[in-house]
């Protein structure tokens, strides 16, 4: 139960709610505006330093910045005083629009990144050309099945297609993505690939000759265990940036800027 409560972004939402509750309580007590703004902002900044609230630099930024950004959005709509006094019908720079309209981007974010995908990596696109040197380090049969697990907006599929098409023109590229919005975007951008909506962790990787990942360090052990259990000998696991701990890589490709591409061949040695 505790693990579910600490699932991102629930700690961030709880921090933002506490900051707003403190701000409203201070305004009800007739505290100066700078106090009502400063103390909740400090609360968010301190909470962002707690390891069970935020584990990465970007998450700490989101936690610490959530309250002041929401105040700014609210003030643009109703004016700072109106926002703290609950003036939902007040008119500010935003005219007659409802003061809760700033929640619309959050709704779009939840559509693009549904709760079931919170434990996975956020949508960071694979850079163009990041996999260009991959054919020099792997061997595939023409017609091999290649999976981008968690394909997001399709940038990984585009990079795979650009890298593999000249050497293996009949390679069958596939993508799986849990977000319905990103699945649609990826399918639209990659008409030559089969893109479906699904859970990459529930997907069966045994039929694929190569699986490509752009995850994060926390999810790499889970991906390693899945690959070791399901993928056939001689198949390939490729990870952008993040290494598989305790696995000996078949190759490491260093990109401009220092980001590596890790290439593993199953079964891998410790």
Query: What share of the residues lie within helices?
Result: 25-40%
Order of helices and strands: HHHHHHEHEHEEHEEE
Widest sheet: strand ordering: 3-2-1-4-5-7-6
Q: Give the CA-based shape.
A: elongated
CATH superfamily name of the largest domain? Vaccinia Virus protein VP39
Task: Quickly name the level 1 CATH class of the largest domain.
Answer: Alpha Beta
User: What is the CATH topology classification name of the largest domain?
Assistant: Rossmann fold
Structural class: alpha/beta
Count the strands? 7
What's the average pLDDT? 81
How many structural domains does the protein architecture include?
2
Terminal-residue CA separation: 34 Å
Low-confidence spans: 87-97
Strand content: 5-15%
Largest sheet, in brief, is: 7 strands, mixed
Q: What's the CATH architecture of the largest domain?
A: 3-Layer(aba) Sandwich
The number of helical runs is 9
| Gyration radius over CA | 23 Å
Organism: Aquabacterium commune
GO biological process, one term: methylation
Transmembrane segments: 31-54, 61-80, 92-113
GO molecular function, one term: protein-lysine N-methyltransferase activity
